[in-house]
Structures are given as structure tokens and as C-alpha cells.
Amino acid sequence: MGWRGRDEAEGVEAVYARDTYGSLRNGSSCSCGGEKSLRSSSASTQQHLKKVYASFALCMFLAAAGAYINVVTQLVQFGLLTGLGALGLMIWLMATPHSRETEEKRLGMLAGFAFLTGVNLGPLLEMCIAINPSIIPTAFMGTAVIFSCFSLSALYAKRRAYLYLGGVLFSGLFLMLFFSLINIFAGSTWLFTVNLYIGLMVMCGFVLFDTQLIIEKAENGDKDYIWHCVDLFLDFVNIFRELMVILGMNENKKKKEK
């Protein structure tokens, strides 16, 4: 998740800089008042959000196709190549400026990235199928409910209400990395489980944070709906992955107790 840092930190910085200027100019302590994120946003921002979520739906379809093809054709043997391919497409997408001229090209990159992300879920999906096939639909439905609830909360909360979470969430990511490094040597199941639940909470927080940050970026003129879609897509995929692992571990525990 290191790629998030610079891009989102700059976005938050720009938003707060604008708010500070607005407060000083209007002689108030806060320029946002009780405005709701979605209701108070401009028509262009609402149109932008429609594009973001339409692109997100496309990503979900392509990721599902990639995951299915992997499970059926056993592309997992090329896991390293598909992983590097997804990373390369994401970096290429991030490095390509958003414009009308590059829009189709960047949509193609997004499609490839989403497909390969689905392919890379193959090994985890196969593990869940081996334990209990019902884990996958349960995890997906759980992820859909979590993502929808947190997205709606961010959309209808006060403007910029969740942007303060940025520091906490990035600290959570570093804590997860720290625990993961320790567990390489400790090999503790307990620490691994704790890290999973921390990861789930952090990813849920990122849904709130990213949704409101997308709105504020759009209000400030950043209409790169393709990259904004990547943020939400990765949030969904990471929550789905965490839930599958948690459910898989719980199912294994139940089998051992029988």
C-alpha cells in the first residue's frame, strides 16, 4: 500500500489548505459547517462519482473473470508473472496523465490491472474451495455489505469528516508491516490472527477515507476517475482477501475440534 502515501497525502494537504484559506477569509473556524459530502458537492463531482463507480463495477467484473479463469485453467503457476504484470500496469497507469487523449489507453490499463488482480486471487480461492466452497460467497457478500455501508456512511457524512483518519490508517499499515516482519521469525498463529483483524479494520477505514478524499479531490478539479476507481477497487479486494483468510482459519479450527 506504499503507493497510496504521496498521492493521498498531497490530496489531503490541498484540501486542508483550501479549508484554512476559506476559514480565514470568512472569519469562521471551519468552512465546512454541516454540509453533507454528497448533497453539497457540485453537479460535476456527482457526475465524476458516477464514472468512478461505473469503472469500479467494470473492475469487479474483470477481476471475477480473471479469478474464474485462473481456478479453471490453473494459471497460478505463472503467479509471479501475473503479480508483476498487475504491479507494472498500476505503476504505468499512475504515471500516465489523465486527459481525453489518454483516457482509452488508461481504461485499457485499468482493465488489465483488474483482470490480473483477479488472477492473483486464484491461490487463495483454491485454498478456500479445498476447505469449504461456501467461504467464497460468504466472504464476497460480507465484503459487499461492509463496502456498501462504509461507502454510504462516507457519502452522507459531513464534508471532510473522515479525512482525519489518514494518519491513523497509514500508521495501521506500518503496524501491520511491523507485525508481519516480526512474525517471519516468531511464526505465531496468534500474531498472524491479530494482524488479520487489524488489516480488516484498516481496510474498512480506507473505504471511508478514500471515498471522502475522492469527493474533495473532484471538488478541487481532480477528475481522474480512473485512478480514483483503483483506490476503491483495492479497498474492496483487500477486505475480500482478509475475510476469506479469516473465514478459512475459522473453518479449519472447527474441523480440528470435531
Mean pLDDT: 84
Assign an overall shape: globular
Largest sheet composition: none
- What level of helicity do the residues show? over 70%
Portion in strands = under 5%
Number of strands: 0
The separation of the N and C termini measures 39 Å
Task: Please indicate the count of domains.
Answer: 1
Our Rg estimate from Cα atoms comes to 20 Å
Order of helices and strands: HHHHHHHHH
Structural class: mainly alpha
Number of helices: 9
Low-confidence stretches: 8-34
Write up what this structure looks like.
This protein has 258 residues and is mainly α. It has one domain (10-20, 38-253). The protein is built from nine helices and no strands. The chain has helices at 4-26, 43-73, 79-95, 103-120, 122-131, 135-156, 165-186, 189-219, 225-257. Helix 6 (135-156) packs parallel to helix 8. It is globular, with a radius of gyration of 20 Å. Residues 8-34 have low confidence and may be disordered. Keywords: Apoptosis, Membrane, Transmembrane, Transmembrane helix.
SSE blueprint and pairings:
Blueprint: H1 4-26, H2 43-73, H3 79-95, H4 103-120, H5 122-131, H6 135-156, H7 165-186, H8 189-219, H9 225-257
